[in-house]
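Question:
When you can, review this sequence-structure pair and walk me through the tokens.
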Amino acid sequence: AVLKHPYTVLCDPADDTIYVTSFTLNHVVRLRMTSRTAAQYKVFIRGAELDGPIGMAIDEERHLYVASFTNDHILRVHADTGELLGTFGNDEEMDCPEGIALGPDGTLYVVSSLLPYVVRYQPKTGKFLGQFAPPVSGAATPHR
């Protein structure tokens, strides 16, 4: 099987590609779509750094960001080649990262299933920019 426990699907706005995480098989599959039919697929990202891929985001420079749930990392990968460009994050900043999104200012936002706040990163460098708790959590000021 190419997909086992698929978790997230991401459409690339630049072309006819979608990416699907396969949580149990620890890889990301890239599918080229033609008329809503999968014309070509390939296991795109696989490796020791990827353990339980869940959330994904893609930027305008064709960098794909993948949340690695089990080892508390974000992978930065070239969306065309699959080349690993780097990893960032650790278990002190996030715990089981799931959802990730790029903000309009380029900041990468990450939520973890076991923490009550949002983590911010500069995605090109992986620099940790801090955490903040949504108002519904009762926190009035950002965590540092």
